[in-house]
Design brief:
- The chain is built from 6 helices and 17 strands.
- It is of the alpha+beta class.
- It has one domain: Nitrilase/N-carbamoyl-D-aminoacid amidohydrolase, CATH 3.60.110.10.
- The strands form 4 sheets. It has a 6-stranded mixed beta sheet with strand order 5-4-3-2-1-17.
- Strand 9, helix 3 and strand 10 form a beta-alpha-beta unit.
- The N and C termini lie far apart (about 45 Å).
Length: about 300
């Protein structure tokens, strides 16, 4: 039996205002609160420094991007070092003129920057016009050794792809974090809302089961209106951040509409127990999966 390796994980679920500096101050305060409550690995939601600007295609929104390292990572690194916590932070990265990414940083408990993950799967749906802003990631699927465990990160739309979770798990990730900004179109909520949320939660619990890892999902909350002069009723972000164990059981879940700091104690030793009882990694037919690199098998 694997020895216990317990750690408290924190997820920040919050609404965002129009002022990036105010949002940074807010996330710093909430990470500090999570640390006060014993969390040792803490994740933000997706793109916490601004409202979800991808509702429209506006060149002015590129001014929201920043370099990495840059002001946000500097602040988060100082915070991680002062509180002795690992931070997963989601940022709009300006890599070079005309080259932008949706990027997560992993910062260790000594304040050092472990590395970056750049979002690989970029959506293009009504009010989610991310292809206008983000170049697909080019760093591959990664995990990072931190003081409190090996952390993998995927971002929002990556949630729907079992290949992404599998490849991240194969790098040794014990927890896969999914910083997220997902919600309902208000006009669709009555007809489709329950099934949309259920699909989102179910597939991520499936990733936990298939890979024998913890999954931790930090979503934003609140209604963000579509900017004036553009069609749309905005997005009602559905919150419901959650943490799943390696058997797909939800350990804890946040509310639909409230800002919360969700904290749960997890036992990283359970991954070994899960994988020995459900040996999916052992029984994979790696010799037979070559066609996964094809778009479609005609």
């Amino acid at each position: 039996m694997s020895k216990s390796n317990r750690v408290r994980v924190g997820l920040v679920q919050m609404s965002c205002g129009v002022d990036p500096a105010g949002n940074l101050d807010k996330i710093i305060a909430k990470i500090g609160e999570a640390a006060d409550r014993g969390a040792r690995i803490i994740s933000t939601q997706e793109l916490f420094r601004s409202r979800y600007f991808c509702q429209t295609e506006e060149h002015a929104n590129f001014d929201l991007a920043e370099s990495i390292p840059g002001p946000s990572t500097d602040a988060l690194c100082r915070l991680a070092a002062s509180r002795g916590v690992v931070i997963v932070g989601s940022l709009f990265e300006r890599r070079a003129p005309g080259l932008y990414h949706n990027t997560a940083v992993v910062i260790d408990a000594d304040g050092s920057l472990c590395g970056l993950y750049r979002k690989m799967h970029i959506p293009d749906d009504p009010l989610f016009y991310e292809k206008f802003y983000f170049t697909p990631g080019d760093l591959g699927f990664r995990s990072f050794q931190t003081r409190f465990g090996r952390v993998g990160v995927l971002i929002c739309w990556d949630q729907w792809y079992p290949e992404a979770a599998r490849l991240t798990a194969l790098t040794g990730a014990q927890i896969i974090f999914y910083p997220t900004a997902i919600g309902w179109h208000p006009s669709e909520k009555v007809e489709y809302g329950v099934r949309q949320h259920a699909s989102w939660e179910t597939i991520q619990r499936g990733h936990a089961i298939a890979n024998g890892v913890y999954v931790a999902v930090a979503n934003r909350v609140g209604h963000e209106p579509t900017p004036a002069g553009h069609p749309g009723e905005g997005i009602e972000f559905w919150g419901q951040s959650f943490i799943s164990d390696p058997s797909g059981q939800i350990i804890d879940k946040a509310s639909v509409a409230s800002e919360e700091i969700l904290i749960a104690e997890i036992d990283l030793g359970k991954s070994d127990v899960q994988r020995t009882h459900w040996p999916f990694l052992r029984d994979r037919r790696i010799d037979a999966y070559g066609d996964l690199t094809r778009r479609f098998i005609d």
